[in-house]
Design brief:
Length: about 260
């Protein structure tokens, strides 16, 4: 049975002085058996969040929001996968904001996924279409291209053993307050599994957790987790609010129990 994952992407919010306390508060209020919880703070807050969670023995994983595709080199301001070892165990790769603002290509993202796996980091690979793609009935085509390109050269067994997770985040629903319907998200999740199968990943397509991301809140998470194809959420703005995270993870706990993961 697929894992249920709730991952918090804090983006460019919090400082080291307040990130630890926020992480402790969220961890204490989201203890749901069977739900994998991940907090992804800014790079400068990774150590503070890691240490704060360790102090109270909280079973919450720490993730980075990005990783460079090279191991070392003259890349001012970048962070490599080996640098993250010990600070994080997960990493977000290919977020739409990185694709847009840093002009990341599928080829570059594939290298990042490979580096993450090599370093023992669990990658959350983000894919999703623009509003124009959806309105022109190209959403499935665009996401299929992203899946194939972003996983090019990576063997299915390697990705499975490394704990690959995919997050479907329709770009038009990120930070806009507008989200896809549960039915729309489930249909794209099925399309992603078909893309994995078509790319020769049939052996693990059914077992790879796929999350929904895009203006997720405690009020709408139930609509997405009611769909059996969806395995959790990548949460943006709401992940900075303990009350919101408590509600989101509580609903994920219902899914975990229904899947027999909470025993």
């Amino acid at each position: 049975m697929r894992e249920v994952v709730i991952a918090a992407n804090w983006k460019m919010h919090t400082t080291p002085s307040d990130a630890g306390e926020l992480a402790r508060t969220i961890a204490a209020r989201t203890r749901e058996p069977g739900v994998t919880r991940v907090i992804c703070p800014p790079f400068v807050c990774l150590a503070a969040v890691r240490d704060a969670l360790a102090e109270r023995d909280e079973a919450v994983a720490v993730g980075a929001q990005n990783v460079h595709h090279e191991l070392t080199g003259a890349f001012t301001g970048e962070i490599s996968a080996p640098m993250l070892a010990g600070l994080a165990t997960w990493v977000i790769v290919g977020h739409s904001e990185r694709r847009r603002d840093a002009a990341e290509t599928d080829a570059t993202i594939a290298k990042k996924v490979a580096r993450a796996l090599e370093a023992g980091l669990r990658p959350i690979l983000c894919v999703g279409e623009q509003l124009t793609d959806r309105e022109s009935d190209r959403a499935n085509e665009v996401v299929d291209t992203q899946i194939r390109g972003s996983l090019a050269g990576i063997e299915a067994d390697r990705a499975r053993d490394g704990g690959l997770v995919i997050a479907y985040e329709p770009v038009w629903a990120i930070g806009t307050g507008r989200n896809a319907s549960g039915i729309d998200a489930a249909a794209m999740t099925d399309a992603i599994r078909a893309s994995l199968d078509g790319a020769g990943w049939g052996s693990i397509a059914a077992d790879t957790p796929i999350l929904y991301g895009g203006s997720v809140t405690s009020a709408n998470i139930g609509e997405f987790l009611a769909e059996p194809a969806i395995d959790g959420a990548l949460v943006g703005g709401a992940s900075l609010k303990p009350d919101e995270m408590a509600g989101i993870v509580a609903r994920a706990g219902i899914t975990a129990r229904a899947r027999g993961l909470a025993g």
